[in-house]
Design brief:
There is one protein chain. Helices cover 46% and strands 12% of the residues. Strands 4-5-6-7 form a four-stranded antiparallel sheet. The protein has a four-stranded antiparallel sheet with strand order 8-9-10-11. The relative contact order is 0.05.
């Protein structure tokens, strides 16, 4: 029998989970904690009460635990909490959520009880109560115990929340260890755990620039103490480049609030990077990285950091000097990164004649090195409105806001969706504003869906508003050929809806493939006017047009001409829809391609 097989009998259920975690780690041959943590000791199945609403469960937890948490004797209180938690028969995750909302009459007594629970608790529910209390009441002396409990599967989320305000490095290490499904971060976690700064630095700069490795950018920076490494090695070119990659990834608002806003050393790290950015070799990759950072500092969530007066502008001026215009030569055919740099070099450094940023500004941003996503950044008085007021995803793309004319102001008020939550509006909402023309002003008010206090009404000079909107509508410098082809096809179908109506289809989405940005994709929705009996709904078809020789205008014209004579259902790929309708008409989704 192996040592691993013998472990469970050596840790009886009367052992506290804290001691059990120490024991498991102590007998680990190589000292490594498994990615998902050590399993909790075997015990009775966790209770699953389904007869209570959220409000009823909150009331039960409040009535049962509030008096106990005011007991000045932590040992007696912890024993009582153990008994009451068993009687409540709720999962430890549910209990933790309800305890987080308890009103505490005596915080000192509750803190003492929490410490007793996390050190002596023998089941996950009772220990979870202690952790939930330490999320609110924890102090630095609680860090060692929390780090130990963080080695146990099922307790990590609560421990991370408790550690965040106390020890960001410990919390970050726990996050990246638990979420490193691809194990690309394993060398980094091992180096951090070793406490060797040189090993940590080497593991950091060796990280691949891939989404699987970089999606936890903030946690990587916190766990590795990026700020401390920069202080010790301020002119380390490899470390500076890695810092730029991490900062840029933290500023990405693809699916939630940008991590840069939750990274306390962000300003100091930006300062350190820009101060020594001249140490970076002048490669195309480094030039593009610095331009991306400048865009983040000009119009991204990084604007919302608590900058000292003039400091953000000074950083942009320094980056402007590092990126001379001659660094943007005419790109070679097919060099999308160089083409992007040349077309976007001017964006983050624009000024008005007075030298100040305009009151109202539109910046369309696309970074080919990061993702094919494109967003329309809207700035009012230099503040990016979507991350300031919503923060649950990127602003809508220019095809939606600019090509459609939605941002144009008329006397008749128009409500416009500026951003939809990454998970869809039905899940986490969307940000709307009402735009109207009021004399010689354009007014943005009637905000809907904003997070936090109600936003103010914004009033812009109508002439300046119209001029900036016209400039943004005509500026296609952000657009690459396949995206231009998509926009031209979409415009052609808006002007000539009969091209698709004759085939009983309508365009549902036209853009570029997420994984292959050089391929234009036109998706059509087919809703038959006379569906087979017993069926209904719609079917979807995707027409993929790889980027080939020829300008976008010619390629778009050829696509529109084909739609004049050919039904797209005969040449586009079937993409799903109503199952009964598809079966009745003989459409089947193509099987997935075999792995390479």
């Amino acid at each position: 029998m192996s040592v691993r097989d013998e472990r469970e009998p050596l840790a009886p259920r009367t052992t506290s989970l804290y001691d059990y975690a120490l024991f498991r780690h102590g007998i680990e041959p190589d000292g490594r904690v498994p990615r998902r943590g050590y399993p909790l000791p075997d015990g009775p199945p966790e209770p699953r009460r389904k007869d209570l609403t959220w409000q009823q469960a909150q009331a039960e937890v409040t009535d049962a635990l509030t008096p106990l948490l005011a007991d000045p004797d932590p040992v007696r209180a912890a024993e009582a909490v153990h008994r009451r938690v068993a009687e409540l028969a709720m999962s430890h995750r549910s209990l933790r959520a309800h305890v987080a909302r308890l009103a505490l009459a005596d915080e000192d007594a509750a803190r003492r009880t929490a410490r007793q629970l996390v050190r002596t608790g023998t089941d996950a529910a009772a220990v979870g109560v202690g952790i939930a209390l330490l999320i609110r009441l924890g102090e630095p002396e609680d860090v060692p115990c929390l780090k130990t409990l963080g080695m146990l599967r099922g307790l990590q989320d609560g421990v991370i929340a408790a550690l965040d305000p106390l020890d960001r490095q410990a919390a970050g290490l726990l996050v990246i260890r638990g979420r490193d499904r691809s194990e690309q971060l394993t060398p980094l976690t091992e180096a951090i755990t070793s406490g060797d700064p040189e090993a940590t630095r080497s593991a950091l700069v060796s990280l691949p620039d891939e989404s699987q490795a970089m999606w936890l950018a903030r946690r990587i920076a916190e766990a590795a103490d990026l700020r401390g490494l920069l202080r010790a090695r301020p002119q380390d070119a490899e470390l500076l480049a890695l810092t730029g990659r991490l900062l840029h990834r933290m500023s990405d608002q693809l699916d939630s609030r940008a991590d840069i806003l939750d990274y306390p050393p962000a300003r100091a790290v930006y300062e350190a990077l820009v101060r020594h950015a001249d140490r970076l070799p002048p490669t195309p990759e480094h030039r593009s990285l610095l331009l991306s950072l400048a865009l983040d500092l000009h119009s991204g969530p990084a604007v919302l950091l608590n900058w000292r007066p003039g400091r953000r502008r000074a950083l942009l001026d320094a980056l402007d000097r590092l990126l001379p215009e001659e660094a943007a030569p005419e790109p070679a055919p097919g060099d999308r990164q160089a083409d992007w740099f040349r077309r976007n070099r001017h964006l983050p450094f624009a000024r008005t004649e007075a030298g100040d940023p305009p009151r109202w500004e539109l910046v369309v941003v696309h970074d080919p090195g990061d993702s094919p996503g494109v967003e329309t950044r809207i700035l009012a008085d230099g503040i990016p409105l979507v991350p300031a007021l919503f923060g649950k995803g990127r602003a809508n793309p220019p095809e939606y806001l600019l090509d459609s004319g939605r941002l144009r102001a008329a006397a008749e008020p128009r409500e416009v969706q500026l951003c939809e939550a990454y998970c869809t509006e039905g899940c986490c909402g969307a940000l709307y504003v009402t735009i109207r023309r009021d004399g010689d002003e354009v007014v943005w008010d009637g905000w809907r869906g904003a997070v936090g206090p109600p936003p103010p009404a914004y009033r812009f000079d109508a002439a300046a508003y119209d001029a900036e909107l016209a400039r943004a509508e005509q500026d296609h410098s952000w657009c690459w050929p396949a995206r231009s082809t998509a926009r031209l096809i979409a415009a052609g179908l808006r002007d000539r809806p009969e091209l698709t109506a004759r085939w009983e289809v309508a365009p549902s989405w036209i853009g570029t493939d997420w994984r292959d940005p050089d391929t234009t994709v036109a998706q059509f929705r087919y809703t038959p006017s006379a569906p087979p009996p017993g069926t209904g709904g719609s079917l979807y078809f995707a027409w993929r047009l790889p980027d080939e020789d020829g300008p976008p205008r010619a390629r778009a014209a050829a696509a529109l001409q084909r739609l004049e004579t050919d039904d797209p259902k005969t040449f586009a790929s079937f993409g799903g829809g109503n199952d009964e309708l598809a079966e009745a008409l003989g459409y089947r989704t193509a099987p997935p391609a075999p792995p390479a």
